[in-house]
C-alpha cells in the first residue's frame, strides 16, 4: 500500500528492489508510476489528503486479503 505522500519515493524504491528480486508485487496506490511497478495493481482514488489516505486503502486491502484467503482455502 503506497498512497501519495512524503514516503512514496521510499516505497517506490523498495518496490523496485523487490521487483529486481523477482517478487510478485500487488501495488495499491493512487500514483500511476507506483501502480506500474506491480504485477497486479489496485488503484486508489486520486486527490485524497494524505491524512485520509489510510481510509481509502482499507477496503481494497481487506478485499485482497479476503480473496487471497479464499484462494488458499482459508476461512476469511
Describe this structure in words.
- This protein has helices at 8-20, 32-37, 53-71, and strands at residues 26-29, 40-43.
- Helix 2 (32-37) links the parallel strand 1 (26-29) and strand 2 (40-43).
- The longest helix is centred in the last third of the chain and has 19 residues, at 53-71.
- Strands 1-2 form a two-stranded parallel ribbon.
- The two termini are 20 Å apart.
- The protein has one domain.
- It is 50% helix and 11% strand.
- It is mostly helical and 76 residues long.
Q: Helix/strand-derived class?
A: mainly alpha
Largest sheet: 2 strands, parallel
Q: Which H/E pattern describes the elements?
A: HEHEH
Q: What oligomerization state is this entry in?
A: single chain
Percent strand:
5-15%
Number of spatially distinct domains: 1
The residue fraction in helices comes out at 40-55%
Query: What's the gyration radius in Å?
Result: 13 Å
What's the shape? flat
Spatial strand order of the main sheet: 1-2
Unreliable stretches, pLDDT < 50, 5 or more residues? none
Q: How far apart are the termini?
A: 20 Å
Q: Can you give the mean pLDDT?
A: 93
Our count of helices gives 3
Number of strand elements:
2
What topology emerges from the helices and strands here?
Elements (H helix, E strand, L loop, with lengths): L7 H13 L5 E4 L2 H6 L2 E4 L9 H19 L5
Parallel strand pairs: 1-2
Amino acid at each position: 500500500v503506497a498512497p501519495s505522500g512524503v514516503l512514496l519515493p521510499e516505497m517506490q524504491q523498495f518496490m523496485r528492489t523487490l521487483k529486481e528480486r523477482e517478487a510478485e508485487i500487488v501495488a495499491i496506490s493512487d500514483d500511476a508510476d507506483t501502480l506500474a511497478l506491480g504485477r497486479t495493481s489496485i488503484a486508489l482514488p486520486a486527490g485524497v489528503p494524505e491524512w485520509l489516505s489510510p481510509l481509502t486503502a482499507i477496503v481494497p486491502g481487506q478485499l485482497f486479503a479476503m480473496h487471497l484467503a479464499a484462494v488458499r482455502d482459508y476461512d476469511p
